[in-house]
Q: What sequence folds into this?
C-alpha cells in the first residue's frame, strides 16, 4: 500500500519495439524476460538455442545492431528500438548465407545444436575483422562451445569465408 492507501502494483510488463530479422514487433514483455525467451517463446523463432542459460556456451548468440550478444544474458527491455538478427534472418528462402554455406562445405556441424550460435558468432567475428588467421578465429569464437568437437571444421569454414570476402 502507498501512503495514500491505494494498492501499489509493481510494473510487470513494458512495451518494447524490436526489429527482428527485418520485421517490426511491438510487444509487451515481462521486465525479467531475456531476449532469448522473447525470441523463442514470444516470436516463435526457435533456431536460437537455449543451452546453458548462463552465457557460457554461446548457443543463444544473436546479432543486436550488428554486435554479437548472448541472448540469454540480456533483458529484452534493454533492446527497445534495436535491430536483432537471428539465424532465421541471415539468408533468404532460396539461398544460404556464405557462412552457412561454408559450414555445410566444411562439415562444421555434427549434432547441430550449437550451429546457429556458432554461425551467428562467425558472422560477427568476420564483421569485426577477427578472422585474419586461424588463431584469430579461435580467439574470436572462444565464447561458443561445441559438444561434438567440430572446432577444426568451424575454423576452416570461417577462414573460407574470410578469404573469399577479404574479411
A:
Amino acid at each position: 500500500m502507498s501512503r495514500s492507501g491505494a494498492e501499489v502494483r509493481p510494473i510487470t510488463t513494458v512495451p518494447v519495439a524490436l526489429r527482428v530479422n527485418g520485421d517490426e514487433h511491438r510487444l509487451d514483455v515481462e521486465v525479467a524476460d531475456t531476449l532469448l525467451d522473447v525470441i523463442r517463446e514470444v516470436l516463435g523463432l526457435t533456431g536460437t538455442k537455449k543451452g546453458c542459460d548462463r552465457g557460457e556456451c554461446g548457443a543463444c548468440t544473436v546479432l543486436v545492431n550488428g554486435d554479437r550478444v548472448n541472448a540469454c544474458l540480456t533483458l529484452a527491455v534493454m533492446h527497445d528500438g534495436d535491430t536483432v538478427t537471428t539465424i532465421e534472418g541471415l539468408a533468404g528462402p532460396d539461398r544460404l548465407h556464405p557462412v552457412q554455406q561454408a559450414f555445410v562445405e566444411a562439415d562444421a556441424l555434427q549434432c547441430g545444436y550449437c550451429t546457429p550460435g556458432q554461425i551467428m558468432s562467425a558472422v560477427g567475428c568476420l564483421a569485426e575483422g577477427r578472422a585474419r588467421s586461424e588463431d584469430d578465429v579461435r580467439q574470436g569464437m572462444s565464447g561458443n562451445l561445441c559438444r561434438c568437437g567440430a572446432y577444426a571444421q568451424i575454423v576452416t569454414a570461417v577462414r573460407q569465408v574470410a578469404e573469399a570476402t577479404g574479411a
